[in-house]
Design brief:
It contains nine helices and no strands. It is mostly helical and 190 residues long. The longest helix is centred in the middle third of the chain and has 27 residues. The radius of gyration is 18 Å and the shape is elongated. The termini are far apart.
Length: 190
């Protein structure tokens, strides 16, 4: 069951987690941002962990929907990978990291349940990329001599790292720079 306040809390908490991290945000930030009392936040989310778990669950569901939309909208593997890479641009202009990147940076201090959800979030990325890469190699659209999972890891780490470098350099174009180089190497000539 979702109420406007609950939805707004999850949305604002995600932005804070992407901007400053799990450890640095508090319910005080949310009271300022939304204009409600801490007691109202505790009504919806008794603990910061419960709120963060809801944030990750909502973000993962949204991500799975985005991947399904890519698959239904693009037929070629390279086009699917390009569309996937553009997901990393969401929020970059607002100086936001991808949520999975923000969470992984603090993995050692996150509660166990959020650590597990973070790992699952990355599994979703890697499993989807591996399937797309396998399909692209089968269709002779992509060339990669090694294991598809290894290329999936390379693409994901390139995009995650690009997100961090772009943020530090305040240069959004850097998010996709390394990814474009990898894609240039694995695309089969037309």
């Amino acid at each position: 069951m979702s109420t406007p306040t609950r939805t707004q809390l999850v949305t604002e908490a995600e932005e804070l987690m992407r901007r400053v991290g799990y450890s640095a945000f508090s319910y005080a930030h949310l009271t300022e941002k939304i204009g409600i009392r801490k007691a109202s936040i505790h009504y919806h989310f008794p603990t910061k962990q419960a709120l963060a778990e809801a944030v990750v669950d909502v973000a993962m569901a949204r991500f799975v929907e985005a991947l399904a939309a890519i698959e239904s909208g693009e037929t070629a593997a390279a086009a699917r990978l390009d569309a996937y890479s553009r997901l990393f641009l969401l929020g970059v202009e607002d100086n936001l990291r991808p949520l999975c990147c923000a969470l992984s940076a603090e993995l050692g201090v996150l509660p166990d349940a959020i650590q597990e959800k973070t790992r699952r979030y990355f599994d979703i990325h890697l499993d989807w990329l591996t399937r797309v890469i396998d399909a692209g190699r089968t269709a002779a659209e992509l060339h990669w001599p090694g294991d598809a999972r290894d290329l999936a890891v390379l693409l994901l780490t390139t995009l995650e790292g690009g997100s961090l470098v772009a943020r530090a350099q305040q240069a959004p174009g850097l998010v996709l720079a390394g990814f474009a180089q990898v894609m240039a190497q694995i695309r089969m000539p037309a």
